[in-house]
Amino acid sequence: MSTSELDSRKVEQWFRRRGLPSVVRGLEQNLTVRVVPAVVWFALFEALYKVLTVVDGDAAFEQRLENSLFLLLYTVTLVGSGVLPVVGAWLAANWARDRALDNRGFVPAVVLVAGYVVVGTVADMVIENSGLWAALLDYLFEVGVLYGLTAIGVGSIVGWALRAALRQLRSVGTMTSRAMPLLLLVTTFGFFTAEIWQSAGQISRGQMSLILGFFAVLSGLFLCSVFAAEVRGLRTGLASVDHFSALPDDPFGGLRDGVDGAAEPLTPLERANVVLILLLTMMLQALVFAMVVFAAFMVLGKLAVPDAAIKSWVSHDPTPGELFGVQVPLSNELVHVCLFVAAFSTLYFIATIVTDSAHRKTFFDPVVDHLEVSLAGRAVYLARFGRRSATRGADRQPQP
């Protein structure tokens, strides 16, 4: 591989890591290696989910929760089902990054993908009594979808979203210190009113999902109306000198010399990609904030709201709680109330981010700056490699 082609691939990988695969000209290469992080995420998540559904699938679950050791192990597994797949996918992405550049790692990637299909099929046959061909076709279809999504760049956006979610976790302290105090003063009083508990006790999980979806749609529409103005300022593809200087030396060292900020306007696909990045970033921030609020009120409810109080409010004994098909050691009424409070708080958080100047500077402006630096990189990429990348095919066979 020539030095120029390697530089081109490094720049293209930089765009993919920033969630902008639409900027890349040419075809995705070494798809089997690129699909490994997604396969690892699904494999770990499905394994832990199957463990949880096996141990909580009978009437003795409540009795087993009285055992402190079982409760600890179950809680660790429940938390691990959200954490371990992300960590595994991150490690797999680090493994795949260099190998995708120079067409290495094809054989181990094929072994991993095939192992996922075989082991998953056998597990479904043993645990869920699925038929061989039905289970095998399900996994083959799933892997085929992952290949297709990776080929069109969705895998890059999802990978970026996962990394962005981890970065948002680092800013939990900022979120809680700046956005939560005033909100908690308002919502805490409402949390202890009988009316909200009565409503929560009388609606089904399906209705609660519709309520959460309603809040999500409102948030999305509000953000899209704000993004329309932001994208108008970005759609020309122009980049400033400051953003050129912010480009990293790896991979742009020596490539940006002599390149000005002028570049062809963003294509419709690139504009859609930019809007999606803005929307995903803000929704991830909102999701992290919602998780913090949800966890805070779950702890508060567990400590301050006894089952007798819940019974007096909802006129029946508290029912066992469930999240995503998995039983949790909390009442269903408490889960519903906390979900509603978290959804309302998140809508308030989103409105505050884009309307309050202090919150906008902290949470929103860095996202716009991220995109403007990407536009500077796009100008360099198109000036140096655009024409050749558009005609370059997958002319090299991957090597193990």
Helix count, per DSSP?
18
Task: Provide the succession of SSEs.
Answer: HHHHHHHHHHHHHHHHEEHH
Determine Rg (CA atoms, Å).
24 Å
Q: What's the pLDDT, averaged over the residues? A: 79
**Largest sheet descriptor:** 2 strands, antiparallel
Transmembrane segments: 31-49, 69-93, 105-127, 139-162, 182-200, 206-229, 274-300, 334-354
Keywords: Membrane, Transmembrane, Transmembrane helix
Protein name: Integral membrane protein
Organism: Lentzea atacamensis
Verbal overview:
There is one protein chain. The chain has 400 residues and is an all-alpha fold. The protein folds into 2 domains: 29-151, no CATH class; 175-393, no CATH class. 77% of the residues lie in helices and 2% in strands. It has a two-stranded antiparallel ribbon with strand order 1-2. β1 and β2 form a beta hairpin. It is flat, with a radius of gyration of 24 Å. The model is unreliable at 390-400 (pLDDT under 50).
